[in-house]
Write a structure and sequence with these properties.
Blueprint (H helix, E strand, L loop, with lengths): L5 H21 L3 H22 L2 H21 L3 H17 L3 H15 L8 H19 L3 H28 L7 H14 L10 H5 L1
Helix pairs in contact: 1-2, 2-3, 2-4, 3-4, 4-5, 4-6, 5-6, 6-7, 7-8
Amino acid sequence: YTVGRTDEMRAELGDLDATCRAWIERSATPEIWMDLLARTWSTQMHALSLAGDSAEIALALRTWTADVESWSLRASDPRLIGHFWQSIARSAGEVEEHTLVIAACERAREAYSRAQDETGLILQFIGDLYRYEGAALRARGELLAAEDRLTRSIESLDRSEQALANRADLLGVHRHHDALRAKAFRALLDEFGPQDGGGVHGDLVRA
């Protein structure tokens, strides 16, 4: 990938895809293989985007969405289901499929809302989802809705950091989050700032 050998990367990702699918069908713990496959989707989508094959991109998105619909019936952990939909949102954002980004974000948030979040990490994931959705809405020209998602993203990230800080205090670990919070907020504001020409930044959906 780093040296532009896109065809080789696509071939190896295809082999990994086939291996994961075989183990999903035969394994007693298919969730492990589902998760591994979902983690490759953003990279696969980037490879397809570089190749510029719109038909393959459309087929991949349909296939992966059908996968997640099926896996949602088999996986018992709502956090894992949320992760699958979040992977779809990232992959769709890679090729600016804004409608699918928004739909997948909604499904991911619904799944995460059913999960226990003692650590605050799910709030962080939800903050990321609002960020993805905000970028898609802005690209569609829905600026007020995009601003609303940015605000919700910041709120979720702030609540996540507070939950993490509270947990660290309970464990006797003292950490300072001010620098992390400031960095996250600056990044969000930069991505939605006036210098942005309205397109979706690739790092919004690959982060």
